[in-house]
Fold this protein.
Amino acid sequence: MKKFTIAAFAVAAIAMLSCGNAAPKANLKSDVDTLSYAIGMAQTQGLKDYLVTRLDVDTAYLDEFIKGLNEGANAGDDKKKAAYYAGIQIGQQISNQMMKGINHELFGEDSTKTISLKNFMAGFISGTTGKGGLMSIDSAQMVAQKMMQSIKAKTMEKAYGPNKAAGEKFLAANAKKEGVKTLPGGVQYKVIKVGTGKIPADTSMVKVNYEGRTIDGKVFDSSYKRNMPADFRCNQVIKGWTTALTHMPAGSVWEVYIPQDQAYGERQQGEDIKPFSALVFKIELLEVK
């Protein structure tokens, strides 16, 4: 009897496992049964594409998805299982999204470098449970922000250092040219047309025409081509523009040469403005409002 009981239990367990990744057998005895089945079937429209494109599920393991689906659907209000499934979900987000995003932000396209998943999880779990932490959450946020900024800056410097060097060389040579003057912060300018109007403050609204170029002469933006002057407050643009505008009398036309740290710095801006790029602008101050 004992052997039979163990054998019977084993058969039942195998049957349960085999059913875990299969569809339950439908029994459509009533209208509600039929409706239930139809609603379930209807909800799957587009699901497989969603699993592949949004959740990165390999359809070769669709049986495993069905197994998890059955477990989750039958868990009901079981709080223990709900906590476990939440852990699985967040853990997958860490693996598939967070780690990839952090590594790309810190190290760019260098796939040989990565933060430590083991230490990340040690910190994450300590922060979640409130036990065994090596620093407070507030301290961790400050440490992470400071170190991420430092590492990211080094990565960007390595990748785009030549842009920075080219800009510095260009500005050094440009500063020696006739008619070129330098403003505080390193912004250079040459007067094309002398204006006699009001000089704006940093909070003034202005109307300008402009053309922006990279140091190799490529035009990346032009209000002249759009035949549409731009209106904005002087302190709502890049720092180099603010510096130039607050020294320009209305009616002036200047060619302005902006160091990378007064432009977009380490940020990529569109297709043509690479990180650490010095920029050249023709600026025509039409009106100070």
Summary: The radius of gyration is 31 Å. Confidence is low (pLDDT under 50) at residues 1-19. Residues 32 and 247 are 78 Å apart (CA to CA).
